[in-house]
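User: Hi! I have a protein structure encoded as tokens and I'd like to know what sequence might fold into it. I'm fairly new to this, so please keep things simple.
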């Protein structure tokens, strides 16, 4: 082999290794995990690149998402196949999967205690799994058709949106006892708790409003009208606002919690579903089911700053961003 050809081969091999190194460096940073019901996948999005870097097959009709920030793990429910799956966000591989009831949906993760809570609407229960092994650790009785789940910041209470009963269950996670059943709006689906642990909020699909729940008195004290069929919501402690995805309005409502009214609606995409927030980065991410993409909103200016292609039937119900 001539020196010229040898030099060319060495250069070609070096370029290959450089490409692999570049790919590895490009996927560093925050990631979004978007469940896609239409093609039974999870799209892993590099937030820095604003594009999908990996697509995983994950069972039948993946729905819920949750993240363990301490252990760097991601959890996904596949509703039709009854699975809870564990994803490694560094290798982009599925580490484990277990059967988690008859139709698992919502997910809440307690990183401090290493527990994953999963709602099972078909069995009116919330199941408890070990975060590392997915081993079954128990279950709590809920109301009918439990959907969204949320934990108080200390992890002592699990809140469950009972869609058919139009209420929420407040469950003590230390002993599994139900502390209260609190009436909210019609067909509550998404639920979230503020950073103080004193207020909770539900997105009520049937009454087109958000219920505000006082967790000190265990009472729902106000309803705030939003768009049509509100599905999920996130709290912004910086501005004292809620961002609510409205599936039939194709918008996100911005709710001023101090004044207790809808400040505006932002056009996003068709059938917006799951929603997550990066508080320090001041960005809100919304999965649009019919469009198969993710809209990014600036949390301060309330302007759309990006749209990222994901997969078919993007749902992403839960906290889907891992920083």
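Assistant: Happy to help. Inverse folding works backwards from shape to sequence: for each of the 323 positions I chose a residue that suits the local structure. Here it is:
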């Amino acid at each position: 082999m001539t020196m010229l050809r040898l030099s060319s081969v060495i250069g070609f091999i070096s370029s290959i290794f450089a490409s692999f190194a570049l790919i590895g460096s490009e996927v560093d940073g925050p990631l979004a995990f978007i469940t896609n019901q239409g093609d039974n996948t999870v799209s892993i999005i590099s937030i820095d690149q604003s594009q999908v870097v990996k697509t995983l097959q994950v069972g039948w009709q993946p729905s819920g998402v949750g993240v363990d920030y301490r252990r760097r793990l991601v959890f996904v429910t596949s509703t039709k196949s009854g699975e809870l799956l564990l994803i490694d966000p560094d290798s982009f591989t599925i580490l484990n999967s277990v059967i988690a009831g008859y139709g698992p949906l919502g997910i809440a993760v307690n990183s401090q205690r290493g527990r994953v809570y999963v709602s099972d609407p078909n069995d009116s229960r919330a199941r408890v799994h070990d975060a590392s092994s997915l081993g079954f650790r128990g279950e709590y009785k809920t109301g009918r058709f439990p959907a969204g789940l949320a934990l108080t910041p200390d992890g002592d209470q699990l809140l469950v949106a009972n869609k058919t009963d139009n209420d929420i269950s407040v469950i003590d996670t230390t002993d599994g006892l139900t502390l209260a059943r609190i009436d909210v709006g019609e067909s509550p689906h998404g639920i979230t708790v503020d950073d103080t642990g004193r207020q909770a909020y539900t997105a009520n699909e049937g009454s087109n409003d958000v219920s505000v729940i006082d967790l000190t008195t265990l009472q729902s004290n106000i309803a705030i009208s939003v768009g049509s069929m509100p599905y999920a919501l996130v709290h912004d402690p910086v501005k004292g606002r809620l961002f609510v995805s409205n599936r039939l309005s194709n918008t996100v409502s911005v709710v001023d919690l101090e004044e207790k009214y809808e400040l505006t609606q932002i056009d996003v995409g068709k059938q917006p579903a799951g929603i997550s927030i990066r508080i320090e980065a001041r960005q809100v991410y919304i999965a649009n089911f019919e469009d198969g993409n993710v809209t990014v909103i600036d949390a301060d200016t309330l302007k759309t700053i990006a749209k990222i292609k994901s997969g078919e039937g993007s749902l992403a119900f839960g906290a889907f961003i891992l920083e």
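A useful reference point when you look it over: The two ends are 49 Å apart (CA to CA). Feel free to ask if any position seems puzzling.
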